Amino acid sequence: MLMFKRVLANGEHRMLFVGEMNLKNSKRLTKSGDSFILQGVKRSHAGRYVCRIESSPAIEVTHTLDVQYPATVRRMSPAVQRVTQGVPVRLECQADGNPPAAISWSRQQGRLPSGAQAEEGRSISLGKVDRHVEGTYICTASNGVGAPSSATMKIDVEYPPQVSTKQALLHLAEGDEAQLVCVVHGRPTPEVSWKRDGSPLQPDPRLSSHHSLHHHTLTISPIEEEDFGDYTCVAENSLGKGESRLSLSGLPKEPRMTSSPAGGEETSYTLTWEVESTSPIVMYRVEYRPRQGAESPFPREWIPRLQTAQGLTQPSTAPNNPHSSSSSSFSFSSSSSSSTLYHMSHALKDLWPATDYEATVAVENKYGWSAKSGVFHFNTRREVAVGRSASGCGRVFPSAPFLPFTLLLVVAAIHAAVCS
């Protein structure tokens, strides 16, 4: 007599067939000869099945049925978490599936805060959260059977306002339209207001403000001279306050040097620069000096040159200054609807040969002086070809590197005495 039974997980033996008799009376399980057929397999059917013949001794054959099924995942953390900036957050998921499923984490808005595209594990920890970790996180379980399963969790971070500016300094002219823009982030949504030189703005038909999700714009049109100054974008919510300063200026922009650092002349050099200004340049100031070294014999004072744009030079003095003359020029071209690009130059004369110099430039229009340019380094010509006559007198040191100016004076004196 052939018997067929199932061994349950608790060790109990449950008889299914005895001979041709179906004890479970199930349509899913049928007998065909010495074979048993299970149709519509479910995961609950997994386990051990035994064929047994009651002989002396009894004969048994054991079959193990392993039912594979796709992974499923469920979140163990809340679907939405609203947390305060600075606290740690842990997200966790649990997966089921056969074979056992692997869980990976990703972020709907891009990379994870760690910088990785994905991470594996049942959980992911986010320490001291800020607004940059906000978003929807996805845990995905996959075991290679069927389609992966996913669950999502969203993190909202509450934090004080953070205010930044797209352009902290605007150079414009009277009659232009100014748009001062600040970018504000915060949760709860901050209230945004504007101040001028520390005081709230007074109503003016030329002023209007516009607020979008994060961008807040103050428009001034048309600009009048009294509008130049510092403006503050102030944002407040229940967690704090943030602000950022913007400046509206009619001053020229910082000059940018355009000349080559390597000079071609022994005792002169022409500085060239360009600068944008919304009103005509009326004056400029050049300051220069020999470049300072650890044991430099040169004076450390800057040598100033103040000159009007019309070419009128104002006198200036400096200690131990051998320089006595200079010249300048400038031209301009259209740069934008509100500013002009000026191309300017200034010739420095009576410089020391083969010497490194440094210089800065500032320019002035009717609103005042620009910021100084960055320190610019240049040098006068480093080598001078000096010939020698057949008699040994005349010019000395053919093609020799140029010596320091003070040493050249000594050499010249000796040379004059020998050849006289």
Compact description:
This protein is 4% helix and 49% strand. By secondary structure, the chain is mainly β.
Task: Name the descriptors.
6-stranded antiparallel beta sheet, disordered C terminus, single chain, 33 strands, 420 residues, 8-stranded mixed beta sheet, mainly beta
Q: What share of residues are in beta strands?
A: over 45%
Question: Structural class of the secondary elements?
Answer: mainly beta
Main sheet summary: 8 strands, mixed
Percent helix range: under 10%
Looking at how many chains there are and whether they match, the oligomeric state comes to single chain
Number of contiguous helices: 1
Distance between the termini: 142 Å
Report the count of strand segments.
Answer: 33
Uncertain parts:
311-325, 385-420
What overall geometry do the principal axes of the alpha carbons give?
elongated
Mean pLDDT: 85
Radius of gyration: 43 Å
